[in-house]
């Protein structure tokens, strides 16, 4: 059952001024060539919260407490949250992974904050896990999976090279087709053979490639290289060769942005050997899924890897990690990934609706997290530390309140 909470004073939400003007300053996400600079100071936003399974509910719980702290400190920031049912446990209990009312509420919201869904022992009749997040990506056309990979000062890093502290790249994953195209209409299977299609369309590829080029163009204006790498397996697969062909066609619309190609196997190698040489990478659905996890390992793991699933009208903000049922309920989950995803959400809301309070809150949240790592006050269990979910969140709240 859904239930709602107000995190700030009630107010009238201002209408969106253009559905295609999407920009998040920290990850610089653009899907439009146009930008409106006029900013309002206050507005109320409805946030659909989907806690899900495993550690999802506990990281969502502390994330809402952090958002409440921001609301009390940032003038004009107003959020109304609605917690929605869904996930593997819900499927196990009811036979439905994502109730229609949850889908409708998510679609009607201003943004979706997503915990984690799926449990390894709860599966569909065909043996696959419950993945409502994929259903939402396809249904709401959240075609651009944005995965920022950025090292923070004070964060312990796996790579020995001191230049690893300069890692700052973004993976853009196409999320509505590719090797996930048969997610809803399953591929063929009999007693001897199973077949899944890799679907690459001109329309689907063009929009995500344009997204990546606009992102790189914005990053270039902020001092980054402004380079887009098309990651594929075009030397073997016809679908990937088509993806590359469309990439080369679209790059002509962005003459100031440098671009190149790389095969997926070479990219996996070079992300470990020389990650600083990458800026923006755009790739097919499954390849992006794999690269996102690999790249998260470069900055410490999934516990600090945020993400955003962006479409032209809707957006969802999950951490990159899964439900981790083995550590659920024992206060060992790292909430940083979801907190950083919440910062991306605030940026997206602020730019989409031209509300400066959201942008201020996003910056304040990131700074609070960065100070925690830099001062040694945030050391999660997955980093070899002893700080649990609640303690980490409280440190972030304290930093917000003492800025």
> What about the largest sheet?
11 strands, mixed
Radius of gyration: 20 Å
Unreliable segments of 5+ consecutive residues: 9-25, 28-38
CATH superfamily of the largest domain: Isopropylmalate Dehydrogenase
Strand residues, percent: 15-25%
Helix count, DSSP H or I runs of 4 or more residues:
11
Work out the helicity level.
25-40%
Q: Using DSSP, what is the number of strands? A: 13
Structural class of the helices, strands and pairings? alpha/beta
Overall pLDDT level: 89
Q: What name is given to the CATH topology of the largest domain?
A: Isopropylmalate Dehydrogenase
How many domains in all?
2
CATH class assignment of the largest domain: Alpha Beta
CATH architecture of the largest domain: 3-Layer(aba) Sandwich
Strand order of the largest sheet: 1-3-2-4-13-12-5-6-11-9-10
Q: Quick one: overall form?
A: globular
Please, could you describe this protein's structure?
The protein has 403 residues and is an alpha/beta fold. It folds into two domains: 1-142 and 305-403, Isopropylmalate Dehydrogenase (3-Layer(aba) Sandwich); 158-298, Isopropylmalate Dehydrogenase, CATH 3.40.718. Helices cover 37% and strands 17% of the residues. It contains eleven helices and 13 strands. It has helices at residues 56-73, 88-94, 100-108, 132-139, 202-221, 238-251, 264-273, 285-298, 336-353, 356-374, 389-401; strands spanning 3-6, 43-52, 77-83, 111-116, 144-150, 168-174, 188-189, 194-195, 227-232, 258-263, 280-283, 308-310, 315-317. Helix 9 (336-353) runs antiparallel to helix 10 (356-374). The longest helix is centred in the middle third of the chain and has 20 residues, at 202-221. Mean pLDDT is 89; it is low at 9-25 and 28-38.
């Amino acid at each position: 059952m859904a239930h709602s909470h107000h995190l700030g004073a009630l107010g009238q939400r201002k209408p969106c001024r253009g559905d295609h003007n999407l920009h998040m300053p920290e990850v610089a996400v653009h899907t439009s060539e146009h930008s409106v600079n006029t900013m309002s100071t206050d507005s109320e936003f409805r946030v659909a919260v989907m806690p899900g399974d495993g550690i999802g509910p506990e990281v969502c719980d502390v994330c809402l407490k952090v958002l409440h702290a921001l609301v009390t400190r940032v003038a004009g920031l107003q959020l109304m949250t609605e917690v929605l049912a869904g996930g593997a446990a819900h499927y196990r209990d009811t036979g439905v992974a994502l109730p229609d009312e949850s889908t409708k509420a998510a679609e009607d919201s201003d943004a979706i904050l997503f915990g984690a869904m799926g449990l390894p022992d709860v599966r569909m009749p065909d043996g696959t896990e419950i993945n409502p997040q994929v259903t939402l990506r396809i249904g709401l056309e959240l075609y651009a999976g944005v995965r920022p990979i950025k090292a923070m000062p004070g964060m312990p890093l796996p790579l020995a090279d001191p230049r690893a502290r300069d890692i700052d790249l973004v993976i853009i994953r196409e999320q509505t087709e590719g090797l996930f195209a048969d997610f809803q209409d399953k591929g063929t299977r009999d007693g001897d053979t199973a077949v899944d299609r890799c679907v690459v369309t001109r329309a689907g590829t063009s929009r995500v490639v344009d997204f990546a080029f606009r992102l790189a163009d914005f990053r270039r204006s902020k001092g980054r290289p402004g380079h887009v790498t098309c990651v594929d397996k075009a030397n073997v697969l016809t679908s990937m060769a088509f993806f590359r062909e469309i990439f080369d066609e679209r790059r002509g619309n962005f003459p100031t942005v440098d671009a190149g190609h790389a095969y997926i196997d070479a990219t996996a190698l070079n992300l470990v050997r020389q990650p600083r040489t990458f800026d923006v990478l755009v790739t097919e659905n499954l390849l992006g899924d794999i690269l996102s996890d690999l790249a998260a390992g470069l900055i410490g793991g999934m516990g600090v890897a945020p993400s955003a699933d962006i479409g032209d009208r809707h957006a969802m903000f999950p951490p990159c990690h899964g439900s981790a049922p083995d550590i659920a309920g024992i206060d060992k989950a790292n909430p940083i990934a979801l907190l950083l995803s919440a910062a991306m959400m605030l940026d997206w809301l602020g730019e989409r609706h031209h509300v400066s309070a959201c942008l201020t809150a996003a910056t304040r949240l990131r700074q609070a997290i960065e100070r925690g790592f830099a001062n040694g006050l945030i050391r999660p269990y997955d980093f070899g530390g002893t700080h649990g979910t609640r303690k980490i969140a409280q440190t972030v709240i304290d930093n917000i309140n003492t800025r």
